[in-house]
Amino acid sequence: MTYCCALRLKEGLVFVSDTRTNAGVDHISVFRKLYIFGQPGKRFFTIQTSGNLATTQAVIGFLKNQLTIKQEPNLYSVNTMFEVAELVGQTLKKVINDVTTDTLEQSNYYCSLLLGGQIGHEPMQLYNIYPQGNFICATKDTPFFQIGESKYGKPILDRALAYDMPLDEALRCSLISFDSTLRSNVSVGMPLDVVVYQKDSLIVPNGKRIFESDKYFQRISHEWSDLLKKGLLDLPKPTCDYFE
Amino acid sequence: MTYCCALRLKEGLVFVSDTRTNAGVDHISVFRKLYIFGQPGKRFFTIQTSGNLATTQAVIGFLKNQLTIKQEPNLYSVNTMFEVAELVGQTLKKVINDVTTDTLEQSNYYCSLLLGGQIGHEPMQLYNIYPQGNFICATKDTPFFQIGESKYGKPILDRALAYDMPLDEALRCSLISFDSTLRSNVSVGMPLDVVVYQKDSLIVPNGKRIFESDKYFQRISHEWSDLLKKGLLDLPKPTCDYFE
């Protein structure tokens, strides 16, 4: 399984992905699902992947190979984020069609992708790209996307995330979303990959990998559990009619 | 869709169910999914249902009809909670087999049931009963079961619920679990049905129905959201390397 989430906020973009893959619970591996692309001062984007690992690695492989052999169009030749989304979507569709053209069988090879970034001083964009190659983009009303095992981590995003929230607060919100998912589903696992992009910086961040031993992550995980337990106690007591 | 959860704790039992059923998002109805049975001073139990509505209503219908026509074994004639679970499981299996014996087609008629209660001064029990008629029972290690749309509401139970928690605190925990689910999935809906049973009381509670206008539920929902937002702000800020 997999959990990836991406936020497109007023001040920038936040991306978090886990790294666990499994073919049955007895075959668990660590694979990166968050890929960083960019040319400092010109363009930056990430692609996050969920689904069939052969498909996702083939998509990233094709896109990187186009850059290596300078075949156009490629990620660094297209002009807008919309064109990047089209290129990635068409690559995904081609990869699946290369395996099988049987539409029923194709679902075995499906994957979903999140693409977020900025080119020049055009607005930042965040896309959710489907196996069919089409996509939707995030808006102020719905500033985040999730792919993979999204349900455990959705309540905190639904309650607390807002488009105009500072990036460091949004990052804490998404890390708590991951901590909740890690606790409730063993098929989502550490380490996590995190990338934060400041709007209009056109810096290509290195990103950070969070291992189980990460002191900051351990601390917010413990503090959050304590907060919830104390918070429950502080809520007003149920009225008598609940017990009748 | 549906969300039901049931807790078997040191001090008693807590049951909460939503009431929304849907055949497509354009066909939504309110149906009770929490049924109360009992003989004051002798036995008490509830059955919560998730899945095909015709199946769940047939199961409850058969069980009630056995009581009406005094056909034995029935819910009030069997001696232990284990025998109640067997009776309910076999009734469920029979209802599905009556519709079709094709095992592939049967899955269309599946439902899951939670059964919890106490007979005399035997220990309280909580069972999760599968469409095949077999079941598992809750333990101190795993003091709760969920059926239906369980994922959104699981993190708070995983983090905060404990076997030796007072009933009123456990009730608050389960109501927050429902509030999180209601916010994240429109196929789970108000009103909610709640039953709290005090260990060894052998009282048959009436239960409470929580409507959208319920002041107490509104209050804990708002206070919880405020708590989470404030809690995120109070967490230590991410270190600089998250932004590099």
UniProtKB/TrEMBL annotation, chains A, B:
UniProt xrefs under InterPro entries: Ntn_hydrolases_N, Proteasome_sua/b, UCP009120_prtse
Example of a GO cellular component annotation carried by this entry: proteasome core complex
Gene3D superfamilies: Glutamine Phosphoribosylpyrophosphate, subunit 1, domain 1
GO biological process: proteolysis involved in protein catabolic process
Any single Pfam family the record assigns to this protein: Proteasome
Name of the protein described by the UniProt record: Peptidase
